[in-house]
Amino acid sequence: MDELHKAVEVGKRPYQNILKVIISAGVTAMICFLIGVLMHVFLN
Q1: Residue 31: phi, psi to the nearest 5?
Q2: With DSSP H G I counted as helix, E B as strand and the rest as coil, what are the percentages for the chain, rounded to 5?
Q3: Could you tell me if residue 32 is left (phi over 0), alpha (psi between -120 and 50 degrees) or otherwise beta?
Q4: Distance CA 35, CA 9 (A)
Q5: pLDDT, tens digit, for every residue of 14-43?
Q6: Does position 2 have pLDDT exceeding 80, yes or no?
Q7: Alpha carbon distance 11, 42 (integer Å)
Q8: How confident is residue 8, by pLDDT bands cut at 50, 70 and 90?
Q9: Boundaries of every domain in the chain
Q10: Rounded distance between C-alpha atoms, residue 41 and residue 3, angstroms
C-alpha cells in the first residue's frame, strides 16, 4: 500500500493542478455567459 501511495504522489505534477484551475475557470465563465444570455433572452 505504501508503494502504491508513493506512486500516486509521484504522478501528481504541478501542471495538473494548474490545468484543473484553468478548466474550472473556463467552465465557470461559460456558465456565467450562458446565464447572462438566458436572462437577456427571457427578461427582454
Answers
A1: -65, -45
A2: 90, 0, 10
A3: alpha
A4: 38
A5: 788 889 999 999 999 999 999 999 999 999
A6: no
A7: 47
A8: low
A9: 13-43
A10: 56
SS3 annotation, 21-40: HHHHHHHHHHHHHHHHHHHH
Residue keyed to cell 467552465: 27
Virtual CA dihedral for 33, 36, 42, 44, nearest 10 degrees?
A: -130
Q: Using CA atoms, how far apart are residues 12 and 25, in angstroms rounded to an integer?
A: 20
Backbone angles phi, psi at 13, to 5 degrees: -115, 155
Between CA 12 and CA 20 the distance in angstroms is 12
